[in-house]
């Protein structure tokens, strides 16, 4: 059974900051957001976690293996190097959507995202070492079948993008509704999901659902391990097997 | 009338690179993609352009004001600092979707995105100085009405994300189909669009369409200028007026 | 005759910032300083200039080709993305040391580096286009003869470092005293100098001086052009000729 | 008694890479070097270590607390995100200069820095947990007395720089020769040293030596702990005490 530790990282007072005293140059905001995310990816990844950019002012990270101190270090490091600060809220639950729900509530209770007085909250309790198992994380790595042949080398890039975006939107909604799982577009034609204890038929069902709903063909590799990094790497290898075997679903265990 | 110069920047052979000789750590790929995009944002922004991350291995940039040499410099700079190279294709057209179409075709004619021999193509012709006018770019900056009150401070972050994603997916499709325009999610609850010569009623119609289709409420500020930076900044100020006036559509000119 | 435009970039109030409210983590300060410098290098380099890290809180840049607006853009971009701001002062003179002197005075007149009220000064006048010539910049690229064979592959890394540091210290002092030129260590065993109108015998004399004073053997390639980038690249190619010919001084023109 | 673990990080084949097929743009090399160092600072700092830029193609890091796996992770992460790779060699010794000597030899035995076939060596043995104590690291943080008043706000920036460089050169040599310690300029007017078990009189003696030799006045705060981060932070606080008390040497324990 999975047991997901989600740390929601929210930039404090970001909306107002981007327009005070005047609206700031968009190219600089994009650079700031992307680099802050890139740094969070390294800080979390250095300890076997995963980080997803989601909305950029709200980053969703999987931090099984990081203790409270490690989360505080992320905050301190960002505050030392960026013109903004971040609040972090940790939630733990067998169901990823519930873990994120607990994390969201922790932040909301501490104060509004645009409350200029709310700064650098650190809320929630990480999993204790004794409670961790080798099945805590289940990570699925989806990609679109033959995207390059079908889309990238044929269509207008924006129409390729629209197709992939539709596929992602449908996948993200179904995985959340039917499987309590969180899915994130990670570039190219790839989506990585933090899953509940789904089995092979659940993945086949999900792939069929997306094909029927929006006519986008997916395949998926799945991994299961103690940390997001290990589970995710197992999922990448399983996806390679899909490519070699021509299969749609491969589990790494 | 608008005249949009789009430069499509595509990382050469990226899919194979990410899995050769073995799949690479996801947190490192995310860091690489985000920082490469952040750098492109600065390189383009330094000359009044705009850059959108789109799919990260394919970046869509608006480069009115950059000549061929300036595009080549972007390529050289990336090749000197990253473990990958990029091909760039320029397209120009009054309709943004057509400009991107021309750019896409330029790349496709040069070879597949996964052709290991295709490297650092530079294709297409930028607008000559004589052909540029102060109305070349029309940039629209959309955001979700009261997102923080309605979503961020109330819902589970993922459900907020799903709502915003749905709003974006519907907006991006409608703007492309009905108005030949390109829309990009840029973080938070914001979408920036590179528009054709849309007028106030076109924006009202678009906002109603999205409300009817997915029940997401948008407002928009629009700017028009010689460069993306100028038009985009005018759009940001117009959006501030929406916030002050309680209006849904404000044009900066 | 040379005509050097130096822009001195000084981080406002940095000393106090690094220790307020508490001393900040050294690894974060190093990351901040290095990345801010890396960004300045790109912003200046995007317009054919050069940037040297010098003391990191004071960066020395060569900005022939950048107008006042371009300098202001550097300030704005840094202020949008870093937790500190920077003041910039421009000085122009045939002698590099005098150009930097003028730039330094411009900043000092505006207020102390640790004056918490002094923020984002932009002082001084860039060269006007009409006054620019193809001989404005003379850039010299020195390196240590056979450093890898003699030092890196033989000695303790710190003793190699001490040797190179001694060589640099002597070169920097002599070039300033005897030739009004500014020299900067740029990594490895390389030093780049912004020179006055030195000729071949001046470079031979300098190399002998350093050999006699600290027993370090240098060779040098020199370039001359309208911008730092062009002159510097010519110098690099001239240094390659030294390597091929076994000579100690090569001029690119 | 101190017990220093030094990991020397050397970029493989860098000299040839910077000039092949042609010399690369200096501003891009500077950006690459600085960012790679900034990342190493974060990777090492994330585990309580310290990193010094030294010559940029050779980085000296203090890695007490990092095991072999953690060093390998640094290599993998750099290889995934930069166009170069790095070899790492670990040395441990009570005397910092000897630890670096052991690390240097480890690399030299594996092959030349410019051997195109030598890639990603990982050599040497980290301290085992059982052998670590709370006195393993002694870090000293020097700065120049009244540098801003005496230099920055009065002199030409380059002459300030020359003074600080002379002070550093003398300090680095004396600390190595007389105290087997490694000193690194870290920006501004600051030098951080990785020390052997020096006592208060050793620091006073060192400060007098530098004053007599080059007429530069230093003060110093010193810390002692299990990791570089802890010892370094204690040193920073001790330096603050110097500022408050007007003293020249303060020990944190």
From TrEMBL, chains A, B, C, D:
MF-aspect GO terms: GTP binding; GTP cyclohydrolase IIa activity
Catalytic function, reaction form: GTP + 3 H2O = 2-amino-5-formylamino-6-(5-phospho-D-ribosylamino)pyrimidin-4(3H)-one + 2 phosphate + 2 H(+)
InterPro entries for this protein: GTP_CycHdrlase_3, Nucleotide_cyclase, Rev_trsase/Diguanyl_cyclase
Coiled-coil parts of chain: none
Keywords: GTP-binding, Hydrolase, Nucleotide-binding
Listed EC numbers: 3.5.4.29
Function description: Catalyzes the formation of 2-amino-5-formylamino-6-ribofuranosylamino-4(3H)-pyrimidinone ribonucleotide monophosphate and inorganic phosphate from GTP. Also has an independent pyrophosphate phosphohydrolase activity.
UniProt-listed HAMAP family: GTP_cyclohydro_3
Family according to the record: Belongs to the archaeal-type GTP cyclohydrolase family.
Identification of the protein by name: GTP cyclohydrolase III
């Amino acid at each position: 059974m999975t047991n997901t530790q989600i740390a929601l990282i929210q930039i404090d007072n970001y909306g107002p900051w981007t327009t005070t005293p005047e609206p700031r140059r968009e190219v600089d905001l994009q650079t700031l957001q992307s680099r802050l995310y890139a740094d969070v990816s390294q800080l979390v990844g250095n300890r076997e976690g995963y980080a997803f950019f989601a909305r950029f002012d709200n980053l969703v990270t999987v931090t099984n293996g990081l203790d409270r101190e490690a989360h505080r270090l992320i905050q301190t490091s960002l505050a030392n190097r960026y013109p903004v600060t971040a609040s972090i809220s940790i939630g733990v639950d067998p169901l990823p959507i519930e873990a994120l729900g607990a994390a969201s509530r922790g932040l909301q209770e501490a104060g509004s995202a645009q409350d200029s007085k709310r700064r650098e909250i650190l809320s929630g309790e990480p999993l204790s070492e004794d409670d961790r198992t080798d099945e805590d994380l289940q990570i699925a790595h989806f990609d679109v079948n033959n995207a390059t042949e079908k889309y990238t080398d044929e269509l207008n890039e924006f129409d390729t993008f629209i197709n992939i975006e539709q596929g992602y939107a449908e996948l993200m909604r179904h995985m959340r509704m039917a499987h309590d799982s969180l899915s994130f577009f990670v570039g190219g034609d790839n989506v990585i999901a933090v899953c509940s204890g789904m089995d092979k038929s659940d993945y086949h069902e999900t792939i069929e659902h997306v094909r029927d709903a929006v006519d986008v063909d997916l395949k998926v590799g799945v991994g299961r391990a103690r940390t997001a990094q290990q589970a995710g790497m197992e999922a990448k290898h399983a996806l390679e097997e899909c490519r070699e075997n021509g299969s749609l679903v491969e589990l790494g265990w």
